[in-house]
Structures
1.
Amino acid sequence: MSYQRKTTDAYILLTNYGYGWEEELEETSYKEIKQRAMEYLANTYAQIKILKRRVKKGDIA
């Protein structure tokens, strides 16, 4: 039997409009979150961070 991973990676887009960091959205691939970050940068003045988090496979939206 091979090992089956019980978690999956979730990428969170964090924004800061001057009032602290807030989670805006969550994607399952880095390519998708990077594209959303570029869209946010083009349309807003907020600071942006990408956070990688591991979640249980059943918990991802």
2.
Amino acid sequence: MSDCCDIVLAGAAILDIPVVPADASVFTRGSTPADRIIMTSGGDAMNEALVLSRLGKKVRLITRIGKDDAGTYLKNICHAQAIDTTYFYEADDLDTGINVVLVDRTGERYFLTNPHGSLRALRAEDIIPEALEHAKIFCFASIFVFPLIAPAQLAEIFSMVRSRGLLVCADMTSPKHGETVDDLAPALKQLDYLFSNEVEAQAITGVKEPENMAEILLQTGVRHVIIKIGSRGCLIADQTGYREMIPACPNTTCIDTTGAGDNFAAGFFAALLDGRDFTDCARFANATAAISIETIGASTGVSSIAQVLQRYMDAYYSH
């Protein structure tokens, strides 16, 4: 294990097979041409890890994979990017997750996924104190992805991480069993930063306006809330009463939204590690996500810190 680590990510590492473009007509013919069909790495934590590595950060990844060709492929990608794979848990009886990602002409995506593969296999006991050594930030990406980790266990994980002095962060997906903000409150109160999109936040809070969603989430004790609102940008809010809508980067051409939220989080963390304030972190996150959605694949767009800095400067400081 490397002693040098900026951030520890816990979550899914899988393969994606994007198909662009695709629509329902695929089921009306025996063979359908697509402009591109490629193979890329995927999964929330894997996407964030790769982007953070390209932004110059030292990353450790906690995940579960199978002892198969797909798992070996993911490990090789991580090794090439200097991502610490010490806490890759490999199982003989587990298929490494492979998602087929059908992307329509607007950039929206629809997944074919194997719920019995490694995508949802992470367990609470995989996240141990030793995995956090020498790190500054821990991110659980994402709440509700892993059915073997209940809200009460999340609270225990986050409390353990906090006790070791790391910033505690989490992203989320939509709840799978009708969970509410009350169910998550013990876990959320441990968080320094919570990322959610508008649909996910509405599902757990029961309200429709992003400002009201943020208020309810902050009442649990979360220190900073970031609600992603697609092409409008993001709303950021914190315990001091600060609220701001950060507009998305202008002149962005959406080709594939796969992994946009993961790129957003990675950009935010990179900026946070560089000492930027809350507002600038959100702007940098928007710039990272904008680059991501202009290419096919969840982690293929961002190549360097200079690339993102240029987009960030063009979007927010060129006027």
3.
Amino acid sequence: MTLEILICTYNDRINQVQNVLMQPAHNISYLVSWQQSEGYEAPELPAEIASRDDVKVIVVNGSGLCNNRNNAIANATGDVCLIADDDITYIPHHVAHVVEYFELHPTLDVATFKYESRNYPKDYPSYSFDLRQPVKGYHVSSIEIAFRRQSVQGKVWFNPLFGANAPVLNSCEEAVFALDALEKGLSWFFFPYAIARHEHATTSDRLAGVPATLMSNGAYIYLAYKDGTAPLRYVLLAWRACRNPLKFFTALRHVLQGVEYIKKNCIPALQ
């Protein structure tokens, strides 16, 4: 089986992609989805990228991280695909084993792994589990996701209403992607195996208390919890975000704004 690493980058951040690339390795290739904003004057590809036979670069116009990820997924050709950003580094001898998880588990559609970080460490369970029975406190990050291409391509996409540079909601795109995959019956397991290093704060961490993040989480709760517990979860989210009673109702207002937004604009992740 082949592994294809799907790297999403934007405008001048193409110059960072070379730091993601590992030494050429058998059965590992890269697809770089280079998103370019309106009016952007693209430079020539950095030589470190252009000279690599194992790297393919495709250009997509517009904005929105989810649109960029969807472009990468649509153009992928590897047996197993690994989602990447342009600010991570891989642990080469660990990445090489990603395909083995899919070979050892023939019915596995999606797998989530770990990343390491000195500056922003993330807590993970120490054991593997099925995402249909999630562990409390666990959340998915995009750069942890690998998938069997034939299971995902044409079936599951990142919802462009969520994520960086989306019109309103700035995060939760990974959680919505996971929700969509599980609702479509895909199998998804977490494996406590570190494959990458990431030394930057995630959007959810950097912007935890801003209105767009609260709205994103409110919208996700609305989509994810149809068991009647959503209203309580809205309140708990606002309470955790702002313990000061004077600010609680402001936080709750933003959460509910996200709910109303997704009710009015909800579109399926797959178009």
